[in-house]
Input
Amino acid sequence: MAYYLKYRPQKVSDLDSEDIRLQFSEMFSKKNFPHAFLFTGSKGIGKTSTARIVAKIINCEKRSFSKSKGEFIEPCNKCEMCTSITKGNSLDVMEIDAASNRGIDEMRSLREKISLAPSHASYKVYIIDEVHMLTTEAFNALLKTLEEPPQHVIFILCTTEIHKIPDTISSRCTVVVFKKASETELLNSLQRVVQGEKIKIENDALKLIAQFSDGSFRDGVKTLEHLVLRNNTSLTAEVVKKTIMSGDINEKDLINLILNKKAKEALSIIQKSAESGIDPRQLNHQLLNELRTKLIMEVQTKNGSNVTDIAKLIKLLTRAEGEIKYSPIGQLPIELAIVEYCFERGEVKR
Ligand SMILES: [Zn+2]
Output
C-alpha cells in the first residue's frame, strides 16, 4: 500500500495541521455541529482525510455513550461504522468526485437518494470532491438541497478553487480553510512514515524533502516513498539532493538553451535527467522557479526584450506541471512543452 494511504490520519489528533486539529476538536465538543461544510485549500493537505474523520466522529458507535458530557470524542476506529468508513465501503458515507459527476442528472439523483434515511449510520455523509467542477445547473440543484437539508444528512464539499463556488452555496456552509503545511508540520508527517517504516534518513535530508513539498503533505510523503524505492542505502542529504533536485543539471543553462530554441540539446538534458532518476515534477518546479526569477529581473531592469518569451515558456511548463501526474512517461509533458515552444515559429536552431 502506498505510504500516503497507509499513514493517512484516522482521527483528529493524527492530523498534522495544528490549526485544523484545534478547529475540529472545538467544533465537535458542542452538542450541535454544522450540517454543511466547505473545505478549501490546495491539493494534498488533508481535506478528504479530514472529511472521512468527520464522518467517523458523528457516526462512531461509541459516540452515543459519551456525547452527553459535552467533551470532544475521537472516533474509536474499531467499531463497525468506523472500520467501514476507513475502508471506504460504508453505505452511508458517499464520496462523489464532481469532476466526473458534474451534471444536473447526478445532482438530481443525489437529491432523490438523500431523503432516504441512512441504512446503519446516524447520519448520511456526502463528501463531494472538486465541487467547483459542477455545472451551474448542478449547483442550483445542490443549492435546493442545502436550503432544506434533511436532519440525517451532512454535506462536506471540498475544493481547491473557492473562487469558483457560488456565494449562494458557500454562505450556507461552514467554510474551513486548509492552509499550506508549515515546515514543522511537514516534518511531523514525514516522521510518522520514517518511524513506521524504519527508514534510515538524515535530519537534513528530511528537511530538504519538506522544503520541496510546496506545503503539501501528500507531495512530501510521495517524494519520500520515491526516494526509498530508488535507494537501498540510508538516505543522506546528498542522495536526496541528487534524486529530487536536478543534481548536476544547471537550470539556468537549460533555460537558456530552450529560450534560444536549441531543442535538441535541451531534450537530451531532459532525457539524461530522467535516466538518472530525477523526479520530473521537481525538475519542472525548479525550471519554473528559475523562470519566475528571470521574468521579475527582466521587468525590473526595464530591459524587457525577453518578457513575452519567458511568459510563454512559463505558461507551457505550468500546463506540463498539471499533466506530469497523469503521463505514462514522467518527463514527456516537459519535452512536449519544450518542443511546442521551440518549434512554434518554425525557426529551430540546431
Ligand atoms: Zn467507532
User: Anything to note?
Assistant: The mean pLDDT is 88. Residues 280-300 form the longest helix (21 residues). Strands lie at 36-40, 93-97, 124-129, 153-159, 174-177. The CA atoms of residues 4 and 183 lie 18 Å apart.
